[in-house]
Write a structure and sequence with these properties.
8-stranded antiparallel sheet; alpha+beta; 15% strand; 7-stranded antiparallel sheet; single chain; binds 6-diazenyl-5-OXO-L-norleucine; 19 helices; 599 residues
Length: 599
């Protein structure tokens, strides 16, 4: 893994020309040159001890990288007041619920990988949503709306953050919520990204809805105008909810007044979540999935996320190909990556679901199985996805893709704590349902179950039994927050949004750093690709780039089909830790906006 060194930049994504941290191009250039010019952390520290917010930063004492500059700054403030990286992660998560409401949340769920200093490996604080007790495997139709109260899973975020804090945090719980409460009360300055996000959300809802009230007039939106950069978003109801969480404690969400508000919302919209569902919700600390790749130990989340197991299969397969000895963008290299993804997503569809409910074959993470899968790749031809799946009946339907909803942030401190957290409402703003009077959004995570048993289609809907709905079961996720160890120490934390593409995005950045020895900046900037078994097509950010036209033609000749969609894939926020000095390099994706803040 490379520490900072100058390289050519490859930048992908429609937002890449607009650094939404409001810095000018010359400022960005200056910042980049600054980083390149710095040859030692000692020099860096003496030059710039103050807080820095940008799409990359280098620091000694702490680092927070998230999609939101204000939330990253909250995390760093917590580190400055003596909190560790877990405290900072909890505070950042609460802040994101205010500053990035399309994905930051208290009404959703996720996965937090925590690496304590001197521990041999990280743990995973799992806070995935559960199916309400009244849910059944056949409760949805194929064309079921994604935006109803029936799509809401029992939220896990508050329980997960409380568990992480209780086990690993240091500061008082209320101190971690106070900054978010303040942001909700006093308001946040809307930037271009938040304005676009809020306007998109408002376009999806009825004007009489609670969403329209909270993110419209009550939020401070100018009458009759869309949100614009420079406006101020205030969320008084959310501030009140956060105050209750701070003062009464996280239990208020599950058994107290906030729980009653959620249940009342469910009654209003014919939802399924009851007071008992909320009271019975538990987050878990689970052992991570481990895979040895080259000389590195890669840790990802276990079921109910498919991320760790899929990464183990992918890295196990790709290790057999000695990719690093060839050009990354040669047809041979890209072909085996695509074919590996195709095979792994097929295994995902066949076997993966909540391991508290279904038996998942242990062979999936065995190195021999990865070798066996790798050997099944035809070096010259794409394998039609349906040829792999003789055991799954596939019906004729089409559409859809995976957006960049969800959000990931990474945190590290000087003591050696490292946190990698991905959490989500599922789609942007989840169900679009704001709990009346409580100011927060509810997820629509039930959509991550195999919604219609036995219905698998070419669009990518899966109908296999492992991930069908059952009361209390957790829906299968693709969230993949990872922490990579090198020589027994955490070296790299990263993750991304993007539904199933999350796994491909994380794989791409891991290959960039661990296999191709790219600096983190370049690994994050590099074009991304995804193949999810079904639909049987490659999503490649570089598909229309003349630089890759020969590659794309060669792959088409091997039988690969490319999606027309060239939208950006994922939004990675990563931290690299220098093994010698312990210095921290934060890199935020530039596909959207993002902010690395160090101190
Ligand atoms: O847990 C998951 O895998 C999804 N709910 C994440 C959603 C996401 O990243 C955006 N989806 N299209």
């Amino acid at each position: 893994m490379s520490w900072i060194r100058p390289t050519a930049l490859l930048r992908y994504g429609k937002h890449d020309l607009t650094d939404l941290s409001d810095r000018t191009l010359s400022e960005r250039t200056a910042s980049w040159c600054f980083i390149l010019a710095v040859t030692s952390i000692a020099l860096m520290t003496s030059l710039a001890p103050a807080l820095r917010a940008a799409s990359e930063a280098t620091a000694e004492r702490g680092m927070v990288v998230s999609v939101s500059p204000a939330a990253s700054a909250v995390g760093v403030e917590i580190l400055k007041t003596g909190g560790n990286a877990v405290d900072a992660a909890v505070a950042t998560a609460f802040a994101l619920a205010v500053t990035w409401p399309e994905a930051g949340n208290i009404g959703g769920g996720g996965f937090m990988m925590v690496a304590p200093p001197d521990a041999a490996s990280p743990v995973c604080v799992e806070y995935r949503e559960t199916a309400p007790a009244a849910s059944t495997p056949t409760m949805y139709t194929l064309d079921e709306s994604q935006f109803t109260h029936r799509m809401v899973g029992v939220p896990g975020t508050v329980a997960g953050l409380a568990l992480a804090h209780e086990r690993y945090g240091r500061l008082a719980w209320r101190e971690l919520i106070a900054p978010a409460q303040r942001l909700a009360e006093q308001g946040v300055t809307v930037d271009a990204a938040l304005a676009a996000s809020l306007n998109e959300g408002l376009a999806l809802v009825e004007s009489s809805s609670e969403f329209a009230r909270v993110f419209g007039k009550a939020g401070g939106k100018p009458d009759g105008e869309p949100w614009r950069a420079g406006d101020r978003l205030r969320q008084p109801d959310l501030a009140h909810t956060l105050r209750r969480l701070a003062v009464v404690g996280p239990e208020d969400f599950y058994t107290g007044q906030i729980a009653r508000q959620i249940v009342a919302e469910m009654v209003r919209g014919d939802g399924l979540i009851t007071a008992t569902d909320l009271a019975e919700y538990r987050a878990n600390v689970r052992p991570p999935v481990h895979v040895r790749f080259r000389s590195f130990d890669v840790y990802g989340p276990p079921l109910p996320s498919s991320g760790g197991i899929c990464l183990a299969m992918l890295l196990g397969m790709l290790e057999t190909f000695e990719l690093g000895e060839r050009d990354r963008w040669s047809a041979d290299s890209v072909h085996v990556v695509i074919e590996s993804l195709r095979r792994v997503f097929y295994q995902r569809a066949r076997y993966l679901g909540d391991s508290d409910f279904v038996d998942v074959p242990a062979k999936l993470t065995a190195p021999e199985f990865a070798v066996q899968l790798a050997r099944s790749i035809d070096p010259d031809h794409a394998t039609p996805s349906e040829d792999l799946a003789t055991d799954i009946e596939i019906s004729d339907v089409t559409v859809a893709g995976e957006g960049a909803h969800t959000t990931h942030f990474s945190v590290a401190d000087a003591e050696g704590w490292v946190v990698s957290n991905t959490y989500t409402l599922e789609q942007d703003f989840g169900s679009l349902i704001v709990v009346r009077g409580a100011g927060f959004l509810l997820n629509n995570e039930m959509g991550d179950f195999n919604r219609v048993p036995s219905h698998t289609d070419r669009e990518g809907r899966i109908g296999t039994p492992a991930n069908t709905i059952a009361p209390g079961k957790r829906m299968l996720s693709s969230q993949t927050p990872v922490i990579v160890y090198d020589d027994g120490q955490p070296r790299l934390a990263l993750g991304s949004p993007g539904g199933r593409t999350i796994i491909s995005t994380v794989l791409g950045v891991l290959l960039g750093t661990l296999e191709y020895d790219l600096p983190l900046r370049d690994a994050v900037d590099a074009p991304r690709l995804h193949h999810g078994w079904l639909p049987d097509e490659v999503h490649f950010e570089g598909v229309d780039d003349p630089e890759f036209s020969v590659l794309v033609d060669q792959l088409k000749q091997r039988g690969h089909r490319f999606a027309d969609d060239t939208s950006p894939q994922g939004d990675v926020h990563a931290i690299l830790i220098d093994p010698v000095s312990g210095a921290l390099q934060g890199v935020a994706d530039r596909r959207r906006r993002g902010s690395a803040v160090g101190w």
